């Protein structure tokens, strides 16, 4: 309660000092065109439960990396194994990191080796224009892996020529530098972003080095021949003390290199929008069990994913029809997992119905037909979403969708001194139901939903006891996840906003695995998140305070890890801007709480990060 009291104390001080100034912090996102459904509808016309995080919100949060940013969003459970973006898993409403589909401008970031690599993106949060979050299965659009939800990260080059340089310094001798260049010429817009960050780490063997290179180009922007080019590389080298299998393995080490290239174009023909795209993603993972003794145990995995897809959006007398086809070819060469190859092909149809002009009903329904070579079967993912507009600001929505996930190659074939894969694993499947209400008024927005995710053959690693030598993986017989997710935002004045969210999960599992679940059954039970953003009067300083409380379903043997079962955290960010210079200071874990987010990796106590940025923008 002391955290809640602190938030309201800060707000009361603000009200004493400040009444009304220009409205510069907030923006109307109702007209933002959402790209997650491949039909490109305005947010207000969508029937799905979609949350949009705008650029202003992103830059106002106490975060310097994507995992830190997303951990402040209600319904999302970020499980980190280190600071910044060293390594993090993302879960949505109790779904595991393997069940969440990560997209970068609509391009799949799914890694066939393991979902632990899905968050290795070559971007800095300053590159992000917005983030679209879809809660619930979206397999009828994107097929397998869109099991519990989607995170779609949107970036775009700037429209004005600019050069932005940033330097950072923080606890644990964390040093970073970035340069970003926007270069528009006629109808071609380009951007290039370079970043480098190092840290000594907050405990033994948690040092890291991260390099990012990210290029984006748009040719013939705004015309019927618009073409988008994306290319990026991220390299990570980090000590992995206790990251995998056991806290006793303190000398683990890993290097990961991820590359991505994508080219997409948009063609207009009468009542159709046609968008073909090709992409390539490469991931190389080198793992050492003992950092200074590579010969003891070493893994090398090299994965390549080639993808071609085409999307059509057709206006017809019934509304808008989205349809398309996708071919995904995955290759893996590994000294541990073997040489593997997988083909996934799919066709999807999704109709968004338009009724009479004054109709309050909106309905979308469709199906995805997908062939997966691993199981040599065709899978069908039907689904329907509908909403009813009580007023232009209030709508109720309902969704029923089927989802599926095939095991990763790590699930199937991995073997190490502490883990054993299972080549006989079955794909996991789910039936996702949800009902909710959204309110988008000028001063207040609320998004509330109840949901049930009924899953069969859920995949998880387990042990009978913490002292068992190896983690084993198998299919859980059945899991039924019931949940409530409520979040809202209140614009208290022109330059102050308060946000809050609460999620409750109950996992009713019929399990045939060991007593200790590694991922599937240690989901959050309660989650509370609150945030306060204030622009101070007189001096141009913006203050953000974020509080979060996590209480987890925790196996008895895991309760010995401090702060794993539950923890309270408080972060803040102070930003001062003047004449192209932006100075920000982030303070994390202000109360110096001892806590653990995943497995056996204790997170750091109080720490800070300061950045100075200068931006030159051509007028």
For the structure shown, list the relevant keywords.
globular; 22-stranded antiparallel beta barrel; five-stranded mixed sheet; 57% strand; 619 residues; mainly beta; 6% helix; disordered N terminus; 5 helices
Question: Would you spell out the secondary-structure blueprint of this structure?
Answer:
Elements: H1 2-17, E1 33-34, E2 41-42, E3 50-54, H2 55-60, H3 66-70, E4 76-80, E5 88-92, E6 100-104, E7 107-108, E8 128-135, H4 139-142, E9 149-155, E10 162-170, E11 174-185, E12 188-199, E13 208-219, E14 227-239, E15 253-265, E16 267-269, E17 272-288, E18 298-316, E19 319-334, E20 340-353, E21 361-372, E22 377-391, E23 394-405, H5 409-413, E24 415-416, E25 419-420, E26 428-440, E27 444-463, E28 471-493, E29 496-510, E30 516-517, E31 524-535, E32 541-552, E33 566-578, E34 581-588, E35 607-617
Parallel strand pairs: 6-9, 25-28
Antiparallel strand pairs: 1-2, 3-8, 4-5, 6-7, 8-9, 10-11, 10-35, 11-12, 12-13, 13-14, 14-15, 15-17, 16-17, 17-18, 18-19, 19-20, 20-21, 21-22, 22-23, 23-26, 24-25, 26-27, 27-28, 27-30, 28-29, 29-31, 31-32, 32-33, 33-34, 34-35
């Amino acid at each position: 309660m002391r955290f809640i009291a602190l938030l309201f104390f800060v707000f009361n001080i603000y009200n004493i000092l400040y009444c009304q100034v220009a409205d510069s912090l907030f923006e109307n996102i109702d007209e933002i065109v959402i790209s997650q459904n491949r039909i490109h509808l305005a947010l207000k016309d969508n029937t799905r439960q979609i949350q949009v995080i705008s650029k202003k919100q992103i830059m106002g949060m106490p975060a310097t990396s994507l995992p830190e940013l997303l951990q402040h969003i209600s319904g999302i459970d970020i499980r980190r194994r280190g600071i910044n973006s060293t390594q993090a898993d993302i879960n949505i409403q109790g779904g595991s990191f393997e069940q969440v589909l990560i997209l970068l401008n609509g391009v799949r970031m799914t890694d066939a080796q393991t979902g632990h690599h899905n968050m290795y993106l070559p971007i800095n949060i300053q590159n992000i224009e917005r983030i679209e979050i879809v809660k619930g299965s979206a397999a009828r659009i994107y097929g397998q892996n869109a099991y519990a939800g989607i995170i779609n990260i949107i970036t775009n080059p700037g429209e004005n020529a600019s050069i932005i340089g940033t330097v950072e310094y923080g606890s644990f001798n964390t040093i970073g530098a970035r340069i970003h260049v926007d270069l528009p010429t006629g109808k071609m817009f380009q951007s290039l972003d370079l970043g480098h960050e190092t840290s000594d780490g907050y405990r033994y063997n948690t040092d890291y080095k991260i390099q990012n290179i990210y290029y984006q180009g748009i040719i013939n922007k705004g015309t019927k021949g618009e073409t988008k080019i994306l290319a990026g590389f991220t390299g990570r080298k980090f000590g992995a003390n206790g990251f995998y299998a056991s806290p006793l393995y303190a000398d683990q080490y890993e290097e990961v290199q991820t590359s991505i290239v994508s080219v997409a174009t948009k063609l207009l023909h009468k009542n159709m929008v046609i968008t073909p795209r090709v992409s390539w993603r490469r991931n190389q993972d080198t793992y050492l069990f003992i950092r200074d003794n590579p010969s003891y145990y070493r893994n090398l995995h090299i994965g390549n994913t080639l993808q071609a897809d085409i999307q059509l959006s057709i206006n017809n007398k019934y509304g808008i029809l989205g349809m398309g086809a996708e071919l995904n070819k995955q290759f893996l060469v590994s000294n541990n997992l073997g040489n593997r190859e997988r083909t996934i092909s799919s066709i999807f149809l999704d109709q968004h119905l338009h009724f009479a002009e004054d109709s309050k009903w909106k309905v979308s329904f469709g199906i995805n037909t997908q062939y997966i070579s691993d199981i040599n079967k065709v899978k069908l993912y039907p689904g329907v979403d509908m909403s009813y507009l009580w007023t232009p600001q209030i709508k109720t929505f309902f969704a029923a969708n089927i989802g599926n996930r095939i095991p990763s190659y790590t699930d199937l074939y991995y073997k190490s001194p502490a883990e054993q894969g299972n080549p006989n694993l079955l794909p996991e499947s789910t039936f996702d139901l949800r009902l909710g209400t959204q309110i988008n008024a000028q001063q207040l927005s609320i998004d509330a939903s109840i949901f049930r995710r009924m899953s069969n053959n859920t995949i998880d690693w387990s042990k009978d006891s913490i002292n068992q030598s190896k983690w084993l993986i198998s299919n859980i017989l059945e899991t039924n996840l019931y949940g409530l997710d409520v979040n809202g935002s209140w614009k208290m004045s022109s330059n102050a906003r308060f946000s809050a969210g609460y999620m409750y999960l109950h996992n009713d599992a019929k399990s045939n695995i060991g007593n200790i679940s590694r991922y599937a059954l240690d989901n959050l039970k309660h989650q509370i998140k609150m945030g306060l953003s204030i622009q101070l009067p007189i001096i141009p300083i913006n203050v953000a305070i974020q509080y979060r409380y996590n209480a987890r379903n925790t196996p008895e043997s895991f309760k010995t890890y401090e702060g794993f079962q539950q923890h309270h955290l408080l972060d803040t960010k102070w930003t001062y801007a003047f004449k192209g210079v932006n100075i920000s200071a982030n303070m994390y874990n202000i109360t110096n709480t001892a806590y653990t987010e995943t497995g056996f990796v204790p997170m750091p106590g109080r720490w800070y990060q300061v950045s100075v940025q200068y931006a030159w923008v051509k007028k």
